């Protein structure tokens, strides 16, 4: 399972499953519709695609498919980050960090956390 194979909405579906552990397609649709507008049929299609990619599986409970993740959030994050670093920053993690520091508005509290990580605290 390669993170680049997951689209934006597929990742949103995975986030719902990672948070809840298990959810029906209707529950996933309702969760996603709290922040955007997505059709239930679209969620069902994307869940079938995620099953084909072996990212999720389902059980049948009272005639309802209940989905659960087969891949961990950490693995997807690690793969996506590695692809970003390799593809955009020529393999340089420092290049990514420098870009973020130069071009993004990072709150002071997050900068303090970064300093602690850099200093090994």
Outline the structure in words.
This protein has helices spanning 8-20, 25-32, 40-52, 73-88, 93-103, 108-118; strands at 23-24, 56-61, 64-69. The chain has 121 residues and is mainly α. A 3-stranded antiparallel sheet has the order 1-3-2. Helix 2 (25-32) packs across helix 3 (40-52). It is elongated and about 55 Å long. The relative contact order is 0.13. The mean pLDDT is 93.
Q: Summarize the biggest pleated sheet.
A: 3 strands, antiparallel
Mean pLDDT: 93
Q: Count the strands?
A: 3
- Strand % is 5-15%
Order of helices and strands: HEHHEEHHH
Strand order of the largest sheet: 1-3-2
| Tally of individual helices | 6
Shape: elongated
Distance between the termini: 34 Å
> Radius of gyration over alpha carbons?
18 Å
Helix content: 55-70%
Class from helix and strand fractions? mainly alpha
Low-confidence stretches: none
């Amino acid at each position: 399972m390669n993170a680049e194979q997951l689209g934006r909405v597929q990742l949103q579906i995975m986030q719902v499953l990672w948070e809840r552990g298990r959810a029906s397609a209707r529950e996933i649709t309702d969760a996603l519709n709290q922040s955007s507008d997505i059709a239930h049929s679209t969620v069902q299609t994307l869940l079938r695609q995620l099953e084909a990619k072996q990212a999720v599986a389902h059980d049948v409970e009272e005639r309802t498919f209940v989905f659960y993740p087969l891949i961990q959030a950490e693995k997807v994050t690690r793969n996506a980050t590695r692809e970003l670093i390799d593809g955009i920053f020529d393999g340089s993690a420092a290049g990514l960090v420098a870009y973020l520091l130069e071009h993004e508005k990072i709150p002071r509290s997050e900068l303090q956390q970064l300093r602690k990580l850099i200093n090994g605290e």
